[in-house]
Every structure is written in structure tokens, then in C-alpha cells.
Amino acid sequence: MNKMATQFKLLLSFLSLFTVFSSSFVSAGGEVGEHVNHLSDNLEKYTGEVNWIIKKVDGIVTRYEKDGAKAAHSKAVVDHWEAVDFHAAIESNYVPVYAQIWQGLYGVKESIDSNSSIDAVKAEQSKLEQVLWQALGAVKLAAQFQDRGLLQKVALREGGPTNSLETVDEIKTRLNRVVAKFAEKLVKESVDIVHDTYLTLFEGIEGDLISMNANLVEDLEKDFNVTLPVALASKSSVKQIQAIVSSMGKKLTIARDLLAKKEKSKKDVF
Amino acid sequence: MQRRTFIQNLAAYSAIGACPALLSPSLAASVSSVSVEQLPKLEGELTLYLGRGEGGLYENVLNAIKKRNPNFDLKIRRGPTAALANTIVAEAKANVRRAEVFWAVDSGAIGLLTEAGLAQPLPADLTGQLQPEFQFSNWAPVTGRIRTLAYNTERLSAAQIPDSIMALPESDLSIAWAPAYASFQSFVTAMRILSGEQKTIKWLQDMKKRSKRYAGELGVVLAAERGEVDVGLANHYYTLRLKSGKPDATVDLAFTKNDAGCLVNASGIVALTKNDTAINFIRYLLTTEVQSYLASEAYEIPLIGNLSPPKGLPSLGTISPPKVDLTRLANLRPTLDMMRKAGVL
Q1: Cβ contact (<8 Å) for A213 and B245?
Q2: N or C: which end of chain B has fewer CB within 10 A?
Q3: Would A16-147 and A164-265 be classified into the same CATH topology?
Q4: How large is the ipTM?
Q5: Global confidence as pTM
């Protein structure tokens, strides 16, 4: 019974995350592919891709053990990941795990590049394998929700929020993408997302917000313009970036509640 | 329905006593403010490209228009204003006309379309509703915003602030600005048009020595309020909104005189097709109700007739903004070149 309750809670949390993350996804890295709107039809392919990546990474680690770092050609870890459709399936549906995959990929690559012990490399490999399986599980779950019509269609071109509450949701999504891009070692891209999110989204709601909670707006102003960009530009860990984004997420949830109240009390136009 | 039918409608309303002031068609040109009750119902399809801004207040206006007109199918494409303007130009070059109306958050983007010859003429009775300085033949400003000097009231009085923007860097005041911000760049463009390139570059260089840089203009106003600086350059509404949420905020507005420092810029709308529905849709945005809503909720300045400015802002009649053709603000490239040359971008 306890197990069922736990699974149910997990389902609910996934559902809310999927809904938020999938609503307005546009890949910064190229074509997304319509397959992300037909997850069930592609599960077999995704499973094959996960097995393929794990096998490829294992080959790299084995070469490292046998012939050293140069022969291992560690960069291929990233190339293999970027070559598969599963990449877009998880990126469009569950950004937090997507970021962890990048952490895992670089964990293997950098441990090889720094000539770590084979045990240390294998420990990184094991972490990567775990998160890949977790990601496949998340996509399978997303497929079930998609089949039941519970997932919003992934937008393959940019639309945009239509009210202040959707704007807050979009800001949260983009902040999660900041973590993902940072984990991909795309620091400039992650900083650009922060600046763009501030100027094109947060700027549009802070006028309303400041008339309700000036301190909250001041905090978020500092987060957007100082705390997060500085942390991204310095050599922070993904965990540190995640912590800043998580703290901003909590403030944005308060902001969302305030905006929801204001929305209800707004006078009619006509 | 274009001008003739619209006037017939007004006459019909007048005949039943709903609108006695508008009996004569000749008076239609001097209409100051029209109520939504006087407008025809919208019908059919219309594609609007909507520049992002104001966190959904524009969407509230559009939803209200849709609710009032159940047979009106409004299709909306949303995006950053500059990007949509470029898209419209690119679509036109490719002989694709998707957008029928474009509502932009700044007039510079409108200028891009008028320069490209894409803006359709608007009826005189429509543009005639706007205050004279905001009447253009092929686009309609919707609401205005004015450049201001937000100053810290514990450190300064309004009298200590120069009334010339060009004199600001010669003062001993510490200043906040947001050079990367679109409104700021429009203001520098206005200065370039009004005062010339050399004076503007020198102004930028002098300002750089005594200014602290911020990402956005709310940040500028907050810096002035906290006392990090004496004054900040920003659009008026940030200060008004801050004071609305924090009535004891130690910040107030000062205005320069007859220069780019008190430029009134505007959001605007342009018809991209000769389509009655497009024209009548624009009429809805200029109604008393929509103008008053945007003034009270977004602190924007109504540009129709004698409607009151947002609370806390003096009427435009008491300020002396410069005369600038707002569509010329579209020519941003020389401004950005100058800003780079001055080392502020």
C-alpha cells in the first residue's frame, strides 16, 4: 500500500513537471523532431539508444583502462549523446534529469581527461548509467500521460505566454534550461538565457509585482542580474547553480500566487 | 466598415440620443474619446502580431474584445516586438502576408514597417481621435510613456535636478542608467535626432564617467530609491508602480524641458492590410474604456482626447516634451554604433 502511495505521489510530481516543462519547449540546439509528440511510438527506439550509449561509453572506459586517455577519445561521450533522438525526448519532457545526464557525461569525460584512476572513472560511468535509466523511465511515464491526453503538445516553434501566470511558468522553465545548458558546459548560452528571460519575460511582470511586494521584486532583480549570472560565469558546480535556481523558483511561486490574486481583483476592461 | 459606415453608425446612435455630441459627421474628425458602446461589432477573422509586454494586460484587453464580439475570430502570434517587426518585413519580401495588424510595444518597430511601405493608411476620423502631436496617417499610437529622472527624495529636491538632459553629466549627481534597455536606446536616438551625433556621443562619454549601469529600468529606479545613486534615467511607470506598492518609497519624478530627456514614446498599432475589420479593431484600442484601463492598470499615458494621465503623473500639458517623429526612432543602427563608440555598450 505504501509502495502504491509512493508511486502515486511520484506520478503526480512527474505530471506537474511534465506539464510545465513540455508546454513551450523550443530546443536551442537544433531540430526537436515531431517524435517528441509521439513518445509511445518511439519507446523501443529510445530504449535501443540508451543501450547503445551505455555500450559506447563502456567501450570508451575499456579503452581508457587498456590504452590510456588519448586512445579513449573521451569527447565521443558527448558526440554519442547528441546523436540520439532520446536526447530531445528527455530534454523536452524532464529538464532536471536532462541536466543530470550532462553532469554524468562530463563526469566520465573529465575523469578520463584528468587521468583519474579506473575506479574513479567507473564510478562516474555507473552514475551516468543510473541517470540514463532514470531518464528512460521518465520518458516512459511521460508517454503514458501523453497517450491519456494529459501532456500538452510540445511546441516546435515559439509561441509565448498569454498572461502573467503563464509568464511565471515560462520563466521557471527557462531557469531549468539554464541549469541544463550549464551542465552541458554551454556557459555563454546559459547566461544569455538568463538575460533574455529577464528582459523579455520577468520585465513584463515585475511592474505588477512591485506594486504588491517590492522586496520580492528587489530579491529577484538581484538574482537575475547578479547572483545567477555571476555564479554561471564563475566556476560553480551544477549543484550550486541548481540551488540558486531552486531558490528563485520558490520566490517565483510566491510571485505567481500574488499575481493570481491580482488577476482575480483586476477590473474588467469594458 | 470604414469611415463612412462608422459615421453613419455614430449618427444612428446620436439619433436615439446615445451620442448627441456626434450628430454631425463633420464633428467626427474632432471626436476626442469614443466609448466602446459606439463601436460596431467585430466579425470575421483577423490575424494580429502582438509584441510582448505589460505581463498580460494587453492580453486582457484582447480577451475583453473577443468576449464582446463572439463572431470575431482573432488569431494572435506573439513574440518580442523587434523580432515580429523583422518577421513581417521578411514575410512581405517573400510575398507572404500573414499579419493583418501589428501591435508593437514601441514606435521604433512601427517605423520599420512604415519605412518598408507596409503600413496601410488609417481613416482620418480614427487618427483624429488622438492628440494632435500623436496623429499619423498610417499608424496609431495606443498609449504613451515619458522619459523621466527618478530621484531620491531624501538626498535631493526637484529643484536641484537640471532641467536640461544635456546638463546632467555636468552636475555633481550620481546617476543610474540601463544602456542595453530598448527604451533607453530610443531615448538616445531621439537625442541624436534633436541634438546631433557629436553632442550625443560627448554626452554618452561624459555620462559614462558618473553613471552606474543596470540591466533594466526598474533596477534603475530601485537604485535611486535605495540611495545607491541620486537620480536614474527611466520611463515614468516604474516609479509610479513602485510608489503604488510602497507609498513611503523615497523616490519621485523630475522632468527635463523640451529635450530628449522628457521624450514621450508610445506603443502603437498598424494595419497591414486594407481590411475593415482591421481598422475597426484598432478603433477598439482607442476607446475610452481601453485607454482608461491601460492607464489605471499599467500606468500608461492615454493619448486620446482629454483622458486623465495615470495617478501620480502630471498631465502632458504641463510637461514640455520635444517634437520628434516617433517613427524615426526605428533607425537604431547609428545609435548603437554611437553607443559602442562611446563605450557604453
Answers
A1: yes
A2: C
A3: yes
A4: 0.75
A5: 0.73
